[in-house]
Amino acid sequence: MKYGIIDIGSNTMRLVIYEQSKSGRLRERENVKIAARLRNYLTEDGWFTEEGLRVLLDGLLTFQDVTRFHRLHDVKCVATATIRQARNRDDIVRIVAERTDFRIRILSEYEEAYYGFLAVIQSTSFHEGITIDIGGGSTEVTYFYNRELVDYHSFPFGALSLKREFVAGNVPTDEELQTLRAYVEKQFQSLPWLKQRRLPIIAIGGSARNVVQVHQMLQNYPIAGIHQYEMNREHIVQVKKYLRALTFEQLQKVEALSKDRADLIIPAVEVFQTLYETVDATMFILSRKGLRDGIFYEQFGPIIFPSVLDESFFELAQDYEVNTNHVQHVLKLVIQLFEQMRSLSLFPLTGEDLVLLKRATHVFYLGQYVDEEASSQHTFYLLANRTIDGLSHRDRVQLALVASFKNKTLFKQYVQPFHTWFTRAEQKKLRFLGALLKFAYSLNDTKRNIVNRLQLELQQETIVIHIFCSQSFKAEEYQAEKHKKHMEKMLKRPIQLQFHLEG
């Protein structure tokens, strides 16, 4: 099934076509954007001009060609600030209905804020925070607690309207930027629930996306993906300083920046920095999911996922045809191994390590879906570079390192681009967790679930692992003897395996 939505914004118009994946989640298949800048056609006294209507209709007729090609009949079409604020909005809606396939639904300020909030909590694991969505003609902020919307506000400014009001040329002067900042700061200070909250800010929309992409470019960021990318105040200032040093012609050529946002990005960065300082934020995070996703989340429910991360792992299992029966049995074994090694103080392990190990068990060698021979390489690449809702980029790389473990050489190759992300001790622990997981998987090599339980004991310097089986265990014994060496090297002790047939 395919579904389409048209988002008529103040700066851009966009058609997005989604398709339901095997897991039932919606995946983006087509994304058609038009830089219409409809805000420029809204007069000071609030009338949307004839020329603006022509631009709007031209864009919608372009989208209509695409939706008819895909045979989409029920396309959602929503409009935000510019059409909402137009005094002749009823005429706009009527003319669009007469001349195109679409019926415009004008979102209220609350709806625009709510759908952005909904997209954030459905695609991240934050339980409390501030969201911001800078559009072309308005800026929505929300405060949520326990994943429920508590406060919202729609400010009467966006990146395009700020540029029109405060910036005479294509890039702001120091004085213009100072005046713009003072205005935005006054607006934010008017909301008591924003001030000094010391919470994460989760940003959605094209301006936030471009800020993140510029920062990743400046950092030579080693993995793909912008969803849940984290920045702090210094990072925002770094991006602003870089952009401020460029001419407008140079801004238009920045690879990480949309050309049609070249004259809007600096005002947008100023808004983000001002909000960060108003909130005294703990971090600034991008959500790639926004208003359009929120509308579909509401339609396809559940309205609020009980666990965003559980949904993500369910989706991975469906998309890569993971044998969940096999996984559940290995999970039981890996928990026994972990807990007994911790109780014997064989390796410094924590509860957080067990959480990571459990997650990695669900996606171990997931890359064999692509190619059996290079399953380790494919596993690392897929997990490190695929967006996993609910996981930060650092957590995603940790998961990839553990779930793809094959040997020390490949581990060092995988971790090399991230050597500044993890200390030597953390790298050693990740390698140990990977070795533990690989060993646990070897104990179910034939996928018959024959190992009932494990018992570890120390005999002087030797670790003895008793493995109690319900059926013949020759294949498991061979694989386990082969893979125990990775743990032996890290524990600096010999491991003796004793298989027992019981029952």
TrEMBL record:
It is an enzyme of class 3 (hydrolase). It comes from the Bacteria. Residues 312-476 form the Ppx/GppA phosphatase C-terminal domain. Residues 33-299 form the Ppx/GppA phosphatase N-terminal domain. One of its GO terms (molecular function) is exopolyphosphatase activity. One of its GO terms (biological process) is regulation of transcription by RNA polymerase II. Keywords: Hydrolase. Its EC number is 3.6.1.11, 3.6.1.40. SUPFAM superfamilies: Actin-like ATPase domain, HD-domain/PDEase-like. Pfam families: Ppx-GppA, Ppx-GppA_III. Belongs to the GppA/Ppx family. This is Exopolyphosphatase/guanosine-5'-triphosphate, 3'-diphosphate pyrophosphatase. It comes from Anoxybacillus mongoliensis.
